[in-house]
Amino acid sequence: MNFYQLAIRIVRHIFFLFNGPTQVQGLENLPKEEPYIIAATHRSLYDPFYLAIVWAPEEISFMAKNSLFKWKWLGYLLTKAHVFPVNREKPSPKTLKFAVKQLEQGFHLGIFPSGTRHSTEIKSGTAFIQRLSKKAIVPVAIQPPLTKWQFLKRQPAKIAIGPAINYDPQATYDKAKLEQIDQSIANAFDELDQKIDPQFHYDPK
């Protein structure tokens, strides 16, 4: 058992104890054969943990803001858990290539296309990584408990997984195509939110 697997076992027990079971729908939409890009909404600090728990025993390599790695001890633990840093405003070519390498090594790639909990705008990195990796993008909407009190009161997280946005080998992945993919992700988030709970509202500000 590696560090990631041990950590997820511990986190799963803690989350179940304090927050109860996560409600998941759409598992039938997951590609069956190869690693893919998980593009998820980002509304709480708990989101990466929910994804890791739902996908276990399959492992996810997550992108995370580079400021988390300024503490050496935290950076070490994150690296052991397959988390790697990214400049959210301007991802470097090296970071994007590293993301593709994670997929090639058999990990799913976890990305929050908004880049932060304080925005819902889709940034362009996810589509560009699909262009480089030729992997499917799986959109995921998470309606989590938004405060620590909601978490402790066992307000369950609700997750919906949408149909994959597949790589098209016949397409030219130019600027227009990348923008089209970004819009497809945004549309999928809206549709999945409606499917989970049409009354759910998230204000990033």
UniProtKB/TrEMBL annotation:
Protein name as it appears in the record: 1-acylglycerol-3-phosphate O-acyltransferase
Organism: Facklamia hominis CCUG 36813
UniProt xrefs under InterPro entries: Plipid/glycerol_acylTrfase
Keyword Transferase attached: yes
Gene Ontology terms, MF aspect: 1-acylglycerol-3-phosphate O-acyltransferase activity
GO annotation, biological process: phosphatidic acid biosynthetic process
UniProt keyword terms in alphabetical order: Acyltransferase, Transferase
Domain Phospholipid/glycerol acyltransferase span(s) in chain numbering: 36-145
